[in-house]
Amino acid sequence: MTVPYEKLTNNAFSVSLNRLMLYDLPEEEDSLTSLATWKDGNKELTSLDSTELVDKLSYNLHEIKEDWYVVAQAIDVEATKAVQEKDEKAKPVVIAETTATLANKEKTGTWEILHKLTAEQVLDKTIVLFNYVYENKEAFEVGDEPVAKDASLNNQAQTVNCTVERHVSIQTKAHLEDGSQTFTHGDVVDMFDDVSITHDVLDGSKEAFETILYALLPDGTTKEIWKSGKIDYEVNDKEFTKTVLAEKVDTSKYPEGTSFTFKEINYDKDGNINGKHNEDLKEKAQTLTPKKVPTTPSTPEQPETPTVPSDSQESSPTVKTFPQTGEKNSNVLLFIGFTLIFATVGYYFWNRRN
Question: What residue intervals traverse the membrane (predicted)?
Fold first, then answer.
């Protein structure tokens, strides 16, 4: 309906004019605000027990419908600032994206979006959440502009942090091939180091460790004699184990009484030391020691004593005699001589008697 201007001043149109002005007021624009927290309700994460983000979206939309299409993005703040310093038009660095088709029962209300992130995605990061609301999924797919959005890199209500302190624990045991921890001085032996490294933060990062073998000399000094070099591994399991071998250690090259021990160093993904073990070289479980050679005390030599027979009577020494030359012939002549004497005496008395 067209009304001439001059008739609009007529009192009869006063009510109608008011109604026209009411209908000509522009409708309120669609808007979206949101508040991001970790699942525990805090803005800062200090433990990786739960890495889920909760985003509460407050909307004011022009109609009630069941197919609003919401795109929610987790943005790496520091990485985005770095790329946009080089190129102002560079797109934000997206860590993860969540989409959902949602309904609203009123033109104003709230939705809750859950971002299920991994430890690797959140660790040591500052994250801001971007939200976009589209008429429907088709509008998003064809590239239409969102009806409402909340996407500011400096929005503190949408910003969260993750600063988790890492702890590394190293446990080890040194041994020989037979499992023992003792050797004979002068032997050439293989020395083994069983290493167990425990992490409380499993972020999949690449770390490294090395073992160093020391000789503990009898005079109290130490000497580094072997290094494994850095051995790389990934922090995917709570406990990482590895056996390191120092081959053919010639113990004869070191003074008698020398022991040997291993020391371990762990390096983080940036090459910085984040763990040490047996730094003072005094841990017994890490030490291989020489066998003790038994020694017997020396006693002075005692002179031999003669053996006494069990009957307690002293035996006289046995003298062996040898026959002298002519001894047998002399006995025969003596016998003949005595025989002749007795015969002569007998004959004399017999003759005298007669």
Answer: 332-350
**Token output for 11:** 């009192």
Among the listed residues 25, 28, 35, 34, the one whose alpha carbon sits nearest the alpha carbon of residue 63: 28
Residues 220-258 pLDDT 10s: 999 999 999 999 999 988 899 999 999 999 999 999 999
Q: In whole angstroms, what is the distance from residue 212 CA to residue 210 CA?
A: 7
Same domain as 207, residue 124: no
Question: How far, in Å, CA of 251 to CA of 225, rounded?
Answer: 11
Q: Which two tokens stand for residue 300?
A: 């002075």
Query: What per-residue confidence (pLDDT) applies to 205?
Result: 84
Encoding tokens for residue 323? 């026959």
The CATH number of residue 91's host domain is: 2.60.40.3930
pLDDT over 80 at 74, yes or no: yes
* CA 189 distance to own-chain centroid: 26
Work out whether strand 287-290 and strand 182-183 pair parallel, antiparallel, or are unpaired: parallel
State the Cα–Cα distance between residues 152 and 131, nearest whole angstrom: 10
Indicate the number of domains in the chain: 2
**What span, in angstroms and rounded, lies between the C-alpha atoms of 7 and 294?**
130
- Count of other CB atoms within 10 angstroms of residue 168: 20
pLDDT of residue 343: 73
Same domain membership, residue 173 and residue 157: no
CB of 133 closer than 8 Å to CB of 32: yes
Cβ neighbours of 253 (radius 10 Å): 11
My answer on whether 177 and 283 are in the same domain is yes
**H or E stretch including 85?**
helix 77-86
Query: What is this structure's pTM?
Result: 0.58
DSSP 156-212: GGGEEEE-----EEEEEEEEETTS-SEE-TT-EEEEEEEEEEEES-----EEEEEEE
The backbone region for 326, taken as left when phi is positive above 0, alpha when psi lies in -120 to 50, beta otherwise, is left
